Amino acid sequence: MNSFLYNLAHWIYNKSKNLPHETLLVFPNRRSGVFFLHHYKEVASKSQAGLPVWLPKIKTINEFLADYSSLRMAEPIELMADLYVSHQQESGSKESFDDFYFWAEMMLNDFNDVDKYLANPALVFTNVKDFKSIEDKIGFLTDEQLTVIQRFFKNFSQLQQSVLKDKFLEIWEVLLPVYQRFQSLLNANQVGYEGMIYRDALKNILNADANSFPFKKVYFAGFNAITPCEEQIFTNLKERGLAGFFWDFDEYYIKNETFEAGFFQRKYIKKFPPEPDFSLPSTLTSEQKEITIISVPTDAGQVFKASQILGAMNNADYSNTALVLAEENLLFPALNSIPENINQLNITMGFPLSDSSAGSFIQALIQLQLNTKKTKDEKVSFYFKNVLSLLQHPFIQKSDAQLANALLEFIKINNLIQVADSELSSSELLKTVFYPVESIALFPIYIKNIFQHLMATCWKIDSDNRLLMEKEFFFKSLLKINQLTREIEKHKLNMLLPTYFRLIRSVLQQIRIPFEGEPISGLQIMGFLETRNLDFEEVIILSVNEGVLPTASHTPSFIPYSLRRGFGLPTRELHDAMYAYYFYRLLQRPKKVWLIYNSGVGGLVSGEKSRYIHQLLYDGNFKTHSINVNQTVEVITNQSIVIKKEGQVVNLLNQFLGNEPSKTLSPSALSAYLVCPLRFYFKSIVGIKEPDEIEEQIDARLFGSIFHLVSEKFYTHFFKDKQLVTEQALTDIEKNTIMLDDWIKESFKEVLLGKTSKRVFEINGKNHIVFDVIRKYLHQLIHIDKKNTPFSLVGLELKIQMPFAFAVNGQMKQTQIGGFIDRIDRTQQGIRIIDYKTGSDKLNFDELQDLFTHEKGKDTKAVFQTFVYSALVAFNYPHEPVILPMVYQVGNFFDDANSFAVKSAKYLPFASGNFKSIEPEFLEGLTNLLSTIFDEKIPFHQTEDAKNCIYCPYKIICGR
Were 567 and a residue from 119, 442, 530, 767 both cysteine, which residue would form a disulfide, CB within 3.0 to 4.6 Å? Predict the structure, then answer.
């Protein structure tokens, strides 16, 4: 393989082997220099075996320019501070730093581009109204550039006056004076941003005499898209006879004027010709290559396919094989899929803080502080989700899992939305973590204290050093936070904590810990841009999708596209041309190439292959082979779960049998059996409870619980005083809105925190809306009940039960049926059994047998349960001639036509609505149902109606 860097090393050695230390090589990136030196040593060792070798000097272009600039690179916050001051002084704006920060970065990027590309800021940022007066000043522009610029101003002047135009002018008119003042501030402090340093270095190089250069020759190697600033430096050094140039290109895309991959080099190889005796053959299309294009519908599938390709290779050390990740977030899936036979890896991408436990811990701490609340009486509380996140974090769990889990349980049981700091002070570590940070200056101290506590707890017992990297991440984060805070204090920036935390997040995103390893040996795993100037015999590229190669990222700018294009500032076209070169250059020398893309469609993923793949497919100069990897999705029918009534299951069932059974069957349990026997088994037989979850907002279930409790409180004093409920009595109590609201608030507290809780409870957030809704429903309940006055109360939340005998396969058994009836009252028509329902349950049925069938169990469960309650009342009040089952559907309270009485138009025995008229038939059906439940020959099975599973809490267990 004719490697570009190997041939370059060979050429440099032969030309400068006597004085290599007087030779400087400048590369676009550091990795090119590392590989070049490796090849240089390789060449030198063949010629000077066993002798010491002088190496030429290596620099990146940024390092080279920094050497000739009197400015040092400023810290981001330093730049933001000076830019803020400049903007305030020139615009007279009173805008806070918090508001300015959102668009300061965009302004800074524009200034950087203007300097790097040597655009005249006075012309770029000129007032659009005065463009005509400066037309004579832009004679240096090409006709095309001038046309583009004139088109922009012509179109702008034709716009009607508008708020948008005025705002644009307001910002535009201040850009030039802000730029000039900003430059003055930075120069006074001898700091700058990259573009400013480039421009300063250019000025110094142009003014330097021959003795200022510590090298005899400087070679610029492997460049593609160079800025005008770099172009002038190249030109100056070339004219002085100090510069030489090496370009890595292929005639295939250079000679084709329409090929974007050669856009830059077609220009530069003419202006800066390569060394005459250095050349490499064009191999992109002349040498036979095996290019395989693979579509895979998922990212995981891409990684797996790459692993299969690597596993099928017979390489000894894989040092000439590259796995290129166009999407760098595939790094860790890729590492976990590397075949076992590959022992050496070189990973050019560092381990990002965001993927570490330390990173997630610091993010959780920031979120905790952002949501901290402080009341007027100085009491501090934390949002429960942030508290749970930290208590469940590995650092806290490793420090004291028992204490953390106890607190988690306590918060869930008490349904704490806001957790007081006093509840989280059980240990020194927790006391340190759950501490309110009230100023920017205190946050570094807060992080430092936590760091010290972690060192003394969970990290102290890390005997196998598994947390070594986490310690390093945390320490580096602490240093960055300290540095940022010092800069803020130094520049006296007043900002809110949320802005400060955004700055911290921005800084921490840049933290990476490099992987240790031999940079040359083994499989090379790298990002796409890191492949510049490197050559391999086998290359696997992942995520060759449109929007990834080339990237679809767009940097916001105050400078419109037309002006960017006109003044030669970077645009989308230049970005695409740069990526096209890197792609085709990577394909120049390998023998085998695999291009894998994600063909899946979903969310923001289009599944579209990159334009580069389309170009290869339709270009006859390339021979490609396409493979479609299908990941078959099969709908697997879950095996039906059947629980036989034997062994321990029988023992559990027997707890419901006997004269004094330890368990009672409730109407809701019996109804659950009719909906799904397996649900009945999980809930009533095995006793699997739904996991406790903190209810931040009131859902349908909690709404029903609160309304039940409010209605009970409303009628409690009537019941206790044995007072007749009259229309006037209801009207009088309805007027006492303060008392009604107190009952509602009490009900909220009892449902969310528990009846015995002594915690102070406040209704907040969306629960205010729920409070108002319940108040309206309570008033409507009073309105409905006025129509049925007078009546007396027999019971509220009355616990009632009865023994029930039945036969199973000829053997008599007995169980206990019982439950709580929401309300029993006595009217002139008879005794009413009232069950409150917040759902849309049906109040009618066709045949009595429908109540006992699995197929209709869900539709008739409200009627069934009310009839069971009626049967309980009939047993306990045997002399009552009329028992009226009622279901108060809260959702239909405002429907005046709804009587809420259970009824049937077809089952004539129940025409009167009196349960006593059908009691024998219902009890017969109940007997048969119980016989089925306790028949050991009939197992518990899943419902056949999948609709019953939609809201079932046990559907995950069933696989439904």
Answer: 119
Closest CA to 120 of 50, 60, 180: 180
Structure tokens belonging to residue 746 = 């009490």
Query: 């590989």: which residue's tokens?
Result: 35
In 10 A of CB 392, how many CB atoms?
13
Helix (H) or strand (E) holding 598: strand 592-598
- In angstroms, rounded to a whole number, what is the distance separating the alpha carbons of residues 880 and 826? 10
Q: Name the token pair of 424.
A: 């989280």
β 592-598/538-542 pair status:
parallel
CA dihedral over 397, 399, 401, 405, signed as positive or negative: negative
Residue 53 burial (C-beta neighbours within 10 Å; 0-12, 13-18, 19+): middle
- Please give the sequence-ordered ranges of beta strands (E in DSSP) within 6-129, or none if there are none: 23-27, 57-60, 72-73
Per DSSP (E only), the strands in 203-303 are: 217-221, 243-246, 290-296
Query: How is residue 911 annotated by DSSP?
Result: T
For 154, residues 6+ apart whose C-beta sits below 8 A from its C-beta are none
| ∠ CA 288-293-296, rounded to 5° | 160
d(CA 58, CA 24): 6
DSSP lists the bridge partners of residue 791 as 725
Listed in sequence order, the residues at least 6 apart from 934 whose beta carbon sits closer than 8 Å to its beta carbon are 653, 656, 657, 806, 808, 813, 815
The H-or-E segment that residue 661 falls in is none
For residue 806, list its beta bridge partners: 813
What is the β-pairing status of strands 418-420 and 191-192?
Answer: unpaired
Q: What is the distance, to the nearest Å, from the Cα of residue 156 to the centroid of all Cα atoms in its chain?
A: 40
Average pLDDT of adjacent 10-residue blocks, the chain of 960 residues: 90 80 91 92 82 86 95 90 91 84 87 94 72 50 61 54 60 88 95 96 92 90 95 95 95 92 93 92 90 94 94 85 92 90 84 87 94 84 92 91 91 83 90 93 93 84 72 90 89 87 88 75 90 95 94 80 86 92 95 94 74 94 91 64 92 92 93 91 87 60 84 91 92 91 88 75 77 90 91 94 94 94 93 88 87 81 93 94 92 79 89 93 95 94 83 79
Q: Residue type at 304?
A: F
Q: What is the DSSP letter of 521?
A: S
**CB within 8 A of 176, min separation 6: which ones?**
121, 122, 125, 126
Residue 885, SS3 per DSSP:
strand
CB 582 within 8 A of CB 224: yes
Q: How far apart are CA 140 and CA 122, in angstroms?
A: 14
pTM (two decimals): 0.73
